């Protein structure tokens, strides 16, 4: 599938409005109709051009609920679990996500690769102790080496030598064989389970439902990128994070949550308030740190670029 027709296309592409509607018989008032429970589309609901792919995507991500709860419901925000001796500090964690973002930009990898690597990094943090801190850059290099090979693409794949030189420099003492050893370690720590689910795979459809232009879509992508690097956000379902991000952008631009969003997210606004409040606080923190230049936030810097419409420079809603 070429990138122009890819439903998970680059965030730099404008999401076009699709005005097509399908008329359907009215449903009973007391029945909540959404993308998980329907035979016909309610009148007025946005129908995306890539309808079949959207239906498959939505049902997969919503059906992930039970697996998600089993995997994350007992995960603590700082990765401390009974019986484990993990002494990672929040500074360690933040530095690794800063490094992840920087490496992703240097390598110019797909956006989906960033979100996959971020989620797998949260898993690795639960399984690595402080003794491995000095090897984290090599572990991260190996993780990106794995993730760039995971999703089929027409782009070239970095060899282990190329990715080592790209991230550590041409004169580095880090050997490609060391990265290959780290690759094996990462795969074993992950139990060879590389499939991830993230809000990134959902916001394309939600953006169409909200009738967002390219600037608003970049604002959504900025918010879910911040969420991807935050341990506290990992306890929420990806659908809820994506919906909360869209809702915050709607609030920011004085728009309205609409029927199409109710349908495609299968969420009502009152159901995502906790996610919205936490994500809003993360957004405010990133803005203040970026404005005062207290922290070198790579995600803030990325979305300050005019090519991203400088969305990170916009003042968030404080109320």
List the helices and strands and how they pair.
Blueprint: H1 51-63, H2 65-72, H3 90-107, H4 111-125, H5 136-150, H6 160-168, H7 176-189, H8 200-210, H9 214-228, H10 238-252, H11 259-265, H12 273-292, H13 298-302
Superfamily at the CATH H level of the domain at 200-313?
Cyclin-like
Query: What's the level 1 CATH class of the domain at 200-313?
Result: Mainly Alpha
Helix and strand element order: HHHHHHHHHHHHH
Radius of gyration: 20 Å
Whole-number mean pLDDT: 81
Question: How many helical stretches?
Answer: 13
CATH architecture of the domain at 200-313: Orthogonal Bundle
Which percent range fits the helix content?
A: 40-55%
CATH topology name of the domain at 200-313: Cyclin A, domain 1
Share of residues in strands: under 5%
Structural class: mainly alpha
> Which segments are poorly predicted (pLDDT under 50) over 5 or more consecutive residues?
1-30, 69-85
Number of strands: 0
Largest sheet: none
Give the overall shape. Answer: globular
Separation of the first and last Cα atoms: 44 Å
Tell me what the structure shows.
By secondary structure, the chain is mainly α. Among the domains are: 88-189, Orthogonal Bundle (Cyclin A, domain 1); 200-313, Cyclin-like (Cyclin A, domain 1), CATH 1.10.472.10. The chain contains 13 helices and no strands. The protein has helices spanning 51-63, 65-72, 90-107, 111-125, 136-150, 160-168, 176-189, 200-210, 214-228, 238-252, 259-265, 273-292, 298-302.
């Amino acid at each position: 599938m070429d990138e122009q027709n890819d439903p998970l296309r680059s965030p730099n592409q404008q999401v076009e409005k699709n005005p097509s509607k399908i008329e359907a018989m009215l449903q009973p008032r007391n029945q909540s109709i959404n993308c998980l429970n329907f035979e016909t589309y309610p009148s007025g609901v946005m129908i995306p051009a890539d309808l079949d792919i959207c239906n498959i995507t939505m049902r997969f991500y919503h059906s992930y609920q039970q697996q998600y709860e089993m995997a994350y419901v007992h995960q603590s925000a700082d990765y401390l679990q009974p019986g484990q001796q993990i002494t990672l500090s929040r500074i360690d964690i933040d530095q690794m996500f800063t490094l992840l973002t920087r490496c992703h930009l240097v390598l110019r990898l797909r956006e989906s690769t960033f979100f996959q690597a971020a989620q797998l990094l949260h898993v690795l943090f639960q399984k690595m102790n402080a003794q491995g801190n000095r090897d984290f850059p090599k572990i991260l290099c190996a993780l990106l080496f794995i993730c760039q090979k995971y999703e089929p693409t027409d782009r070239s794949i970095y060899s282990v030598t190329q990715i080592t030189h790209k991230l550590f420099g041409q004169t580095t003492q880090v050997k490609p064989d060391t990265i290959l050893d780290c690759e094996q370690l990462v795969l074993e720590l992950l139990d060879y389970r590389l499939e991830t689910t993230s809000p990134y795979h959902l916001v394309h459809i939600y953006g169409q439902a909200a009738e967002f232009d390219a600037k608003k879509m970049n604002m959504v992508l900025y918010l879910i990128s911040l969420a991807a690097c935050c341990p506290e956000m990992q306890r929420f379902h990806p659908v809820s994070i994506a919906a909360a991000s869209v809702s915050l952008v709607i609030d920011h631009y004085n728009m309205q949550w609409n029927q199409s969003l109710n349908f495609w997210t299968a969420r009502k606004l009152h159901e995502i308030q906790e996610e919205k409040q936490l994500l809003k606080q993360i957004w405010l923190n990133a803005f203040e740190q970026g404005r005062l230049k207290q922290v070198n936030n790579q995600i803030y810097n990325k979305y300050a670029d005019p090519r991203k419409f400088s969305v990170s420079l916009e003042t968030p809603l404080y109320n």
